[in-house]
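Late entry, written up from scratch paper. The run itself happened at the end of the previous shift, but nothing got recorded in the book at the time, so transcribing now.
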Amino acid sequence: MSSTPPTPAVVTQAAVRRLPRWALWLFCLAYVIPGFVGHDPWRSQDLASFGMMREIAEGRSAWWPLSFLGDAPDIAALLPYWLGAVTIQYAPGWMPIDFAARIPFALLLAITLIATWYAVYYLGRRPEAQPVPFAFGGEAQPTDYARAMADGGLLAMIAMLGLAQLSHETTAYSAQLAFTSLLFYAYAASPYRIWLPAVCAAVASVALALSGVPAFGMALAFAGAIARAIQTDAHARPWALYFAALGVAAAILSLQLGLWHAHMGQIPLDWITWRSWGKLMMWFTWPAWPMALVGLWKWRAWWRHLHIALPLALASVIVIATIIAPLPDRSLLLAAPTLACLAAFALPTLQRSVSSLIDWFTLLFFSGCGIVIWVVWLAMQTGFPSQPAANVRRLVPGFEASFSTWPFMVALLASAAWLWLVAWRAGRHRDALWKSLVLPASGAATSWLLLMTLWMPMLNYVRSDVFLVRQVTRYIKPASSCVSVHGISQSEATALAFHGQLKLEDFSKRSPCQWLVVNALAQRVFSNAAHAKQWKQVGSARRRSSNYDDLQIYQRVTVKK
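Output as recorded:
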């Protein structure tokens, strides 16, 4: 007999009742679609990535190597930009190109959720992950148990507070999340299937390398290979060799394409950095991380088995990468599928008191969030209550609220659904395995939906660079000749080209443009240049959230013959 003690999962057949598929699909759609519609490209990385896609689609950059005004893109990737460029090229004429660029990323988010569900499902089917058999029967059946665990894993992922915004951006990080999830699925499904996991692993390995993280992808491949190699089934080692070989092949491909880079910083040595990282870890992955810790502790005797070893190995690689990465929140995003899996395996071990605590905290937190969102929206529309209205006028000067019927109706339905879910959770399905994650996931999705409907005009007003570009085009009309740019970011350049319809040239090329736009941070260097006397400052443009002039606008004084 095996020395492994009985599993900590004590689950009855009644506890693995099926979550209605229509409800699960509707829930996922309500989470995926908001954030991809109804707004301009938002500044920083979202806008810069869209600008690179636009450069490729309109022929100003080669498909490889990529070039944005003579420089490499901010994120050294290929595949995410290609996806956006293809949809821009083939989008119908009536569709705005910024919306067209978001379509593949909405599909990538859908792939993330689907791959995570199936990864947890196959790990839940493992014999060593099954609940304790009862003396007289009545324990959960393997397939039903695995399905309930997968539902719980999906809900745990959607419930993570940090996932909403970053997963809805048109950046390489959204693609990295999708392909990490696909790789996770391939490892989990390999004991049960052959061709689909093999193809998914190959696609995900290459796609991660082409999405800007070849070193990270290779580390994931080796971690997955180790977790697979220590299993006892007959095909464990061939699969492990295959996964490791894919990681090496993808790394060689990225090296040949000039994409190899580690994107790593250094291990922080000061307490302030560690404290900031700890705070990020706590709120970004809430409520998955405490449940994941509970799951690891309860299943500690099974750490070598695939349902624990695989997500633990992958999550460890991602957490280590997050510690030394220059953008820790973007790296931590990739841990969502594995942390959700570990959180799901905590569900069969939770005591009723812990489950009730999660419900009460979630109820108070997300109900409070919903009330705040509605009160601020009411203040924007009517001026009452007066204090929130004054806060909006102070924080967002110049914003004029307007009423939109469809967003209001969607927000109203979402709020009604939240109230119904609270009543449903209190009165029915008390024994369902996934019950503890219904309110966290629905609360996070409802809050995100309310933000993307009721607050969307205000958020778009703040996050978009349309206002900045309008100030520039007061001096430079779109019908004018080219505009030289100096020291501006790729995000700012994209805003000028897309919103202002300006033809941009790199100032270092000494183009004969009549106009010049200089970032305020680069103005001192420009002013000391020998050719600065050829230009006269005629104006400036300032963001709403800035206390300094962001862009300086110059006009040529003498024109070269």
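The chain has 23 helices and five strands.
(Scratch paper discarded after transcription.)
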